Automatic annotation (TrEMBL):
It comes from Populus tomentosa. One of its GO terms (molecular function) is copper ion binding. This is laccase. The keyword Ribosomal protein does not apply. Its cofactor is Cu cation.
Length: 581
């Protein structure tokens, strides 16, 4: 039976008419509403010859990609089909006036209970680039995560060469055991948690692990093309070095903010961070394959997963190469050289190359005057062992972590609700210390007393306050790099250094012209970092170390930003389906 595939004259006329009208009246890029449904469900997954039933979104590991354009509104319905409480964070999304959709459990919402659902409703304002989403309760983000890709507005080009293809690469950690059991046991005993069994690239550990060769991520490329790799570190507890043998990256974006492009053979990416790189492939088929590997950058004294994840970069065969009888089986496989595990010098050099574009189209609006100065120590400490219990932390204590020696105690009701409805009594106090209550030589010999205080304390900021925050690592239980993530804002990294911050000398060297703008920054091991941000987003905003073990131990706090005077400076009322505690 013949079917006519030619369009009717009437249809052609309509097409021509719409084309002409569109050409005569070019419309600005139209924002749309995008709907997604995330079903949180158990799924059997096998890696390293271990099969386990684990919490996933839509049965996928990693979870599905969420794609939108700058200006779009997202309505994401999350349905909880598992026994665990669930909440999802949209990491790096500003959530202007939509704090109810930010996602950290007991901070902006109560978690979604078994059999319940919640619609995360937010608009992407003035952002484009690679972000990601993940569970924000206990250690569930070990399996609940995926890319969140924001394309520029229609018709707006990238400020770099248009890539031939875009590829998300998301690093993770695989545990043969249940991560929830691991952290629960560690919190009971006071000791350090067991480490992961493998790192993964897009959920796959690769051929350097036993029983894993079939689970290898392969990136197939064509010669002479430019690929945009959207790199995301979703690992629980490890900063990672990443490199592709015999290839160079051009870094063009960090944490969904464009940067001045620079070339590097290896990059460093902390949990919570994203980095976009251009990969220019070789002009001709190289008759070889190339390992892409990642392994940890380690500064602390605890145990860690000292293994390497590998994927393979393969060039597609053209007809010519196939005819010249190069079978892919025989091609040599090159391996990259990654820096030593504790290479802080590389880490410092790499991060110092990151600079904002700071041009007319993408300005760096660095606060030049500061309304409020804060100095926070970040690091480890201890809690006393409860009576009649043996603890496995340092000298029979329990591991803890703190900001200004306050180990944050999570409330049982959400902070944002308590603030919004004026019911903060018995939930939190607004007296988080602006400076350490007991100053000491932060990076010198640690004090004898390492016991932390515990409390639910917040900092309160009037709307539009400009903030400068110095975060100082401490040597208590060992100096360590801490990737600190601030919800609800991007901040400018205006300075960093080693040793103790000197308020008299160091600010003179701050970069207030083109500092990198991001949402997660590594506090250098045995050093400090200075950030500035404008508190222009009303709500309650979590700030915590993105090494999940440190968050569990209390290295977290929150900022309350009050409503402004104008209607568009006030937090919107909570949605009707906001989960109850």
């Amino acid at each position: 039976m013949g079917v006519s595939l030619l369009p009717s004259p009437a249809f052609l006329g309509l097409l021509l008419f719409s084309f002409v009208t569109l050409s005569l009246h070019p419309k600005p890029a139209v924002a749309i509403t995008r709907h997604y449904k995330l079903d949180v469900m158990l799924q059997n997954v096998t890696r390293l010859c271990h099969t386990k039933s684990m919490v996933t979104v839509n049965g996928k590991f990693p979870g599905p990609r969420i794609v939108a354009r700058e200006g779009d509104r997202l309505l994401i319905k999350v349905v909880n089909h598992v026994q665990n409480n669930i909440s999802i964070h949209w990491h790096g999304i500003r959530q202007l006036r939509s704090g109810w959709a930010d996602g950290p459990a007991y901070v902006t919402q109560c978690p979604i209970q078994t059999g319940q659902s919640y619609v995360y409703n937010y608009t992407i304002v003035g952002q484009r680039g690679t972000l990601w989403w993940h569970a924000h309760i206990s250690w569930l983000r070990s399996t609940l995560y995926g890319p969140l890709i924001i394309l520029p507005k229609l018709g707006t080009p990238y400020p770099f060469v248009k890539p031939y293809k875009e590829v998300p690469i998301i690093f993770g950690e695989w545990f043969n055991a249940d991560p929830e059991a691991i952290i629960n046991q560690a919190l009971q005993t006071g000791g350090g948690p067991n480490v992961s069994d493998a790192y993964t690239i897009n959920g796959l550990p690769g051929p350097l692990y036993n029983c894993s060769a079939k689970d290898t991520f392969k990136l197939k490329v064509k010669p002479g093309k430019t690929y945009l790799l959207r790199l995301i570190n979703a690992a629980l507890n490890d900063e990672l070095f990443f490199s592709i043998a015999n290839h160079t990256f051009t870094v063009v974006e960090a944490d969904a903010v464009y940067v001045k492009p620079f070339d590097t053979k290896t990059l460093l990416i902390a949990p919570g961070q994203t980095t976009n790189v251009l990969l220019k492939t070789k002009p001709h088929h190289p008759n070889a394959k190339f390992f892409m590997t990642a392994r940890p950058y380690v500064t602390g004294q605890g145990t860690f997963d000292n293994s390497t994840v590998a994927g393979i970069l393969e060039y597609e065969e053209s007809h010519k190469t196939i005819q010249s009888s190069h079978s892919t089986k025989k091609l040599p496989l090159f391996k990259p050289n990654l820096p030593p595990l504790n290479d802080t010098s590389f880490a410092t050099k790499f991060t110092s190359k990151l600079r904002s574009l700071a041009n007319a189209q993408f300005p760096a609006n660095v606060p030049q005057k500061v309304d409020r100065h804060f100095f926070f120590t970040v690091g480890l400490g201890t809690n006393s062992c409860p009576q009649n219990q043996t603890c496995q932390g340092p000298n029979g204590t329990m591991f803890a972590a703190s900001v200004n020696n306050v180990s944050f105690a999570m409330p049982t009701t959400a902070l944002l609700q308590a603030h919004h409805f004026g019911q903060s009594k018995d939930v939190y106090t607004p007296d988080f210390p602006v400076n350490p209550l007991t100053p000491f030589n932060y990076t010198g010999n640690p004090p004898n007393n390492t016991i932390v205080s515990n409390g639910t304390k917040l900092v309160v900021l009037p709307f539009n306050t400009t903030v400068e925050l110095i975060m100082q690592d401490t040597s208590i239980l060992g100096a360590e790099s801490h990737p600190l993530h601030l919800h609800g804002f991007n901040f400018f990294v205006v300075g960093q250094g080693f040793g103790n911050f000197d308020p008299n000398k160091d600010p003179a060297n701050f970069n207030l012209i083109d500092p990198v703008e991001r949402n997660t920054v590594g506090v250098p091991s045995g050093g400090w970092v200075a950030i500035r941000f404008l508190a222009d987003n009303p709500g309650v905003w979590f700030m915590h170390c993105h090494l999940e073990v440190h968050t569990s131990w209390g290295l977290k706090m929150a900022w309350v930003v009050l409503d402004g005077k104008l209607p568009n400076q006030k937090l919107l009322p909570p949605p009707a389906d906001l989960p109850r505690c």
